[in-house]
Amino acid sequence: MIVIKKQTGQIPLILNPTTMTNPSNNNRVMAILTLDMTRIPENFPEIIKHEQEVVQQWREQGILEQLYLRPTRNGAVFIFNNLEESEVVELMKSLPLFPLQESILYYPLIEQFQ
């Protein structure tokens, strides 16, 4: 364990070398999907239904840890398990909503607390 010196009044930063040297250990990737709401087609409810089926398959396969809907209702946040960022990018391209995306941001994550 590495502790980075703290200055007065600051909390020390503690890094876990096991996680740092083995990025596949508890590897997670967050994908933030934003939809272009100006391009929503009439069959949007059908697209959403198909989207839910795909996401459910990911949950059953254990590759999707969590899905958060955004309060603005223009997208979602996906937390993926044990996948590399490139794999998540390919999965997101397979979503029924992908053609309606305005942007997708990807953030590799390292779990700090277990």
Please provide a brief summary of the model:
By secondary structure, the chain is of the alpha+beta class. It has 3 helices and 6 strands; from the N terminus they run ββαβαββαβ. The protein has one domain (22-110): Dimeric alpha+beta barrel (Alpha-Beta Plaits, 2-Layer Sandwich).
Largest sheet: 4 strands, antiparallel
Give the fraction of residues assigned to helices.
25-40%
What is the distance, rounded to the nearest whole angstrom, between the alpha carbons of the first and last residues? 15 Å
Strand order of the largest sheet: 4-5-3-6
> What gross morphology would you assign?
globular
What do you see in this structure?
The structure is a single chain. The chain is an alpha+beta fold and 114 residues long. It has a single domain, classed as Dimeric alpha+beta barrel (Alpha-Beta Plaits, 2-Layer Sandwich). Helices cover 28% and strands 33% of the residues. The protein has three helices and six strands, in the order ββαβαββαβ. The chain has helices at 17-21, 44-61, 85-93; strands at 2-4, 13-15, 27-35, 64-69, 75-81, 101-110. It starts with a strand and ends with a strand.
